[in-house]
Amino acid sequence: MKVCSLLAFVLPALLVVDSMTITEGPQPTAGPRLEKRFKEKIVNPEYKKLQEEKLRTSSSTKTKLKPWLTTISSTRTELVTPTVVAGVTFNAKPPKTTNGMEPWVSLKKDGSPKTILPKNKNGHIKDGSPTYGTWFAQVTTIKYTKEEIKAHNMADDEVYEHEEVIHEDDPYARLNPVMRCTPDSYFKKGMGKDVSSEPFCTPHDNQALKMDETYFVTWYSKFFKSNNVKIHASFLKETLRQKGMKRSNISFDDEADLDKRSSLLEKGASISEKSFFSTDWIPNSKGIYPFTIDPKWFGPKDWSRKVLLTIQPDDVDIGELDYMKNSVVISIEKGAKVSKEHLTDLKKLEEKWKNQHLNVEIDEGPGYEKYIVMMTIPTCVCVFGLFMYLFVLVNRRYIDLSHLKKRSFAGKNTTHRRIPFRTKKNSQLPRYRSDVQPKAD
């Protein structure tokens, strides 16, 4: 009976289980393939254009400035193109209004330019643009008679001479930002500083001019009556006394020697090569010439050379030119050079970083082999020092330094005085005693 009831309960359950579909549980599946997404660079178009312009201008060595139109006279106009020489812009368009605070260019003793910025202090302008007075003006004398002037206090036969100053009206002179040469800018040269440098203002006597640098040679244009001039550079040969290889034999008893007090020429220097460099004909009214030191002027063993600068006016033939007269002596030098490619690699790397978005190939400069060589030597020294330290540390028990004794200093226990020539105090000096009888001779 019990078996029948159990079967009646189990059979329906089996039928229900058989009718159900058995499904498998959740199985792990391969997920979607995720790729790393890169964010594209967003470059400002104006910035990109600016960098491209900068890259193009950096490749060119000369700065190109836009020309401008100027009026020379009422019926004549001219197109003026500015030029840049040694960092100084010539023939630049002047401002429409001026207030005396415009910068101007002065020259150092060697002729290198120096920009001067005027300052306004309590309404007074300090370091303003130079004024030249009447150095470039033309003085004209006009004669008047009594009939022309009709002065009541003049005699009938008296003639009045009137001096009229006509200032220079050269439009090209106003476009020169460099200080002009006048007799006020002359310097004294020679050992006694008693010889005038006329007509030169720069460079000064015995100034050192470096190779590959540009300096300005200036002279007073009114000194010569000619329209064009030439500048000649000649090599000088120094004597052994000037080089310090022979004793000087100056005799102060000879009056002729006292008159020769120049620094180089009057010590006996002579011209070894005349006019190794000569300029073309230059308008005398300019009074300025950019003088660049050429590396070809140096020999393989020359570090510096003495050069004589002379000006030849167009009314004097080259055969009649006196090179020693109205001249100035300079020294041209190669100068110190730290490295052949100093900071070139760093500049190339910086340029590559700035222009990495322009899709242009930038040369990275010299390789790093030289830096490896420079770092190898100090690294070997450090390794050798470390090895010696470890060697001494390991073998310290076998090293006997007992024979070395520490030196002891007397210090306060000595009577030796540290200050030499120190006298005793008055209280320590022997005093006079009246009971002491003097010794008989």
From TrEMBL:
Entry keyword set: Membrane, Signal, Transmembrane, Transmembrane helix
Classification via Pfam families: Psg1
Tree of life domain: Eukaryota
Signal peptide, first to last residue: 1-19
Keyword tRNA processing: no
Region (Disordered): 97-124
Coiled-coil segments: none
Parts of the chain that traverse the membrane: 371-394
Descriptive protein name: Piso0_001112 protein
